[in-house]
Specification:
This protein has eight helices and no strands. With 206 residues, it is mainly alpha-helical. Helix 3 packs antiparallel against helix 7.
């Protein structure tokens, strides 16, 4: 796969040939799967850390906002905080993470399948499932930037990272599909939207 650091830097720079290089090596498929699974697990842990920090922030600043809220709303907010705390302090957390990881893997598989079908049936491109999987997996590398969340207590920064890395990962996916299959911008955008919507819909079903 070449120098790992160079590959990562090229992905972040949206290099115009990096995905061609990656997709040309079938052995990268296993690496792409590992990146995808670990990326989603990492994002899940970062999101849980964000929720925990948000709960701490609410508890510490609840007194500043209760005066402007109805009593019923304040009680509901307190109950919600306690429910989340109970989840964080129980064995349910492991079950939630496992369920999240399985759902993410299956929805990712569906997303790759949708892109593959559209490429072969609609756009008439020559490809195979593993090649699409390589692009899909490596485009997920930006989500590892969520690691910063574990080292900061800034809620706005954490929100920015969670949303920003997700958007950038989609941009990388579109860039990879565009360069490997010589697609127009609108075609790459269509594939990303259909893949994201289809996989999200499927994850809701399961």
């Amino acid at each position: 796969m070449g120098n790992n650091r160079q590959v990562i830097l090229k992905i972040f720079r949206l290099d115009k040939n990096i995905y061609n290089e990656l997709a040309s090596e079938v052995s990268n498929f296993q690496i792409a799967i590992a990146i995808y699974i670990s990326g989603f697990l990492f994002s899940g842990l970062a999101a849980l850390n964000f929720l925990r920090n948000s709960l701490v922030y609410l508890e510490e600043n609840l007194g500043l906002i209760v005066g402007t809220l109805p009593v019923q709303t304040v009680n509901e907010l307190n109950n919600l905080i306690r429910e989340f705390e109970n989840v964080f302090n129980s064995q349910q957390l492991f079950g939630l993470l496992t369920s999240y990881l399985i759902s993410s893997f299956v929805s990712g598989f569906v997303g790759v399948g949708l892109v593959y079908l559209l490429l072969t049936r609609f756009f008439r491109k020559e490809t195979d499932f593993r090649q699409v999987g390589i692009i899909y997996g490596f485009s997920n590398i930006p989500v590892f930037l969520n690691g910063v969340i574990f080292f900061t207590s800034s809620i706005p920064l954490q929100i920015f990272l969670i949303i920003g890395t997700a958007i950038f990962a989609l941009v990388c996916l579109g860039s990879g599909l565009k360069q490997v299959y010589l697609l127009r911008n609108i075609e790459a955008f269509l594939l990303v939207v259909v893949s994201g919507f289809g996989s999200s819909l499927f994850s809701q079903v399961i």
